[in-house]
Write a structure and sequence with these properties.
This protein has a domain of 223 residues: 3-Layer(aba) Sandwich (Rossmann fold), CATH 3.40.50.720. With 337 residues, the chain is an alpha/beta fold. The protein is globular. The strands form four sheets. It has a seven-stranded parallel sheet with strand order 3-2-1-4-5-6-11, with helices on both faces. The protein is 40% helix and 17% strand. Bound molecules: uridine-5'-diphosphate-4-deoxy-4-fluoro-alpha-D-galactose (UFG). Uridine-5'-diphosphate-4-deoxy-4-fluoro-alpha-D-galactose binds next to helix 6, helix 7 and strand 8.
């Protein structure tokens, strides 16, 4: 059974990837500092998988602790999520973002190199593409960045490619995600921001539970069918399965790859709101607010390369994203604290 270290494995996408990797037959250990993760996630993953969950409570900035983790077990590969991810915050504390996301990655790769582990799946983002009016966005599109968060993801991709250029033993899968949504069908894990959410789906979820009074729709005068912003929402379980397929390719000795993980299908803010209303069975209040600075009208990916290289195709639809999100947030036992 191949052994995998999953950094950031207690987070939103990381925990779903833990479940998917385990289901696919991998033996997975989590490394997380729990800075933005709930302490009860490992227990919940035990309920889902029916087996004990091994957790290393370690920060990727602690190089000595990373070395100790790699000395404790022989890993066959690493899936790396551990990073900071709030775009707005990255503009306020850029050096912290660069330190965690870039220095953390370098620390991890040096520890891997020392331990002779050269398979790496990296959590990147569609935010590495330069703003464009050409959709769907293929992997060959021009790259660029409009936030420090995006810069750190772009730098992360380049750090990995520089290492692989110098040492042919490295095999990497760089996965550029579009907008993750939804939750595990067990309703035991899901997205749970500790603050007021920045992103659309967790915000709508909090309107549905009554924690927030109404959704602010950021602009309804974009050149889109209903005037609101269009994005490529992908079910978090599909996204998790994309990581399994990326890792499978590396385990089979196939080459490194850089792929989009999206659906190729765009939905507007109002499409999402209506779908969530169907899921929770009640109308959700909203008001039209000014456009949010830096937002694009439309942004969705070309998923063809991931299908051709990895056999990846998103299977779950918008209603499934909303139904599983609602099942997760509406269970009282899932509330923080
Ligand atoms: N939106 C609202 N109201 C809200 C929140 C969002 O109307 O309260 C709208 C936005 O204007 C946008 C859409 O909902 O049209 C989606 O916004 P999100 O913040 O959920 O997602 P973004 O596409 O802006 O951001 C995502 C990721 C980032 C990443 C970025 C670019 O969350 O990490 O894509 O790839 F950087």
């Amino acid at each position: 059974m191949a052994k995998i270290l999953l950094t950031g494995g207690a987070g939103y996408i990381g925990s779903h990837t833990y479940a998917a990797l385990t289901e696919a037959g991998y033996a997975v250990e989590i490394l997380d500092n729990f800075a933005n993760a709930r302490d009860d996630v490992p227990d919940r993953l035990e309920m889902i998988t029916g087996a004990p969950v091994k957790v290393h409570r370690v920060d990727v900035l602690d190089r000595a602790a990373l070395d100790a983790v790699f000395a404790s077990t022989t890993f066959d590969g690493v899936v790396h999520f551990a990073a900071k991810k709030a775009v707005g915050e990255s503009q306020k504390i850029p050096l912290d973002y660069i330190e965690t996301n870039c220095t953390g990655l370098v620390n991890l790769m040096k520890a891997m190199e020392k331990a002779g582990v050269f398979r790496l799946v990296f959590s990147s983002s569609a935010t590495v593409y330069a703003p464009t009016l050409d959709w769907p966005i293929p992997e060959e599109a021009a790259l660029g960045y409009a936030s420090t968060y995006a810069l750190t993801k772009l730098m992360g991709e380049q750090i990995i490619q520089a290492a692989a250029h110098a040492d042919a033993r490295w095999r990497f899968g760089i996965l550029r995600y579009f907008n993750p949504a939804g939750a595990h069908p067990s309703a035991l894990i899901g997205e749970d921001p500790s603050d007021i959410p920045n992103n659309l789906m967790p915000y709508i979820a909090k309107v549905a539970t009554g924690e927030l009074p109404e959704l602010n729709v950021f602009g309804n005068d974009y050149p889109t069918p209903d005037g609101t912003g269009v994005r490529d929402y992908i079910h978090v379980v599909d996204l998790a399965e994309g990581h399994v397929q990326s890792l499978n390719a590396l385990m089979k000795g196939e080459g490194s790859h850089i792929v989009n993980l999206g659906t190729g299908q765009g939905y507007s803010v109002l499409d999402m709101l209506k779908a969530y209303e169907r899921a929770c069975g009640k109308p959700l209040p909203y008001r039209v607010a000014p456009r949010r600075e830096g937002d694009l009208a439309c942004y969705y990916g070309d998923p063809a390369k991931a299908e051709a290289l990895l056999g990846f195709r998103a299977k779950r639809d918008l209603d499934d994203m909303c139904a599983t999100s609602w099942a997760w947030v509406s269970r009282a036992s899932n509330m923080r604290g």
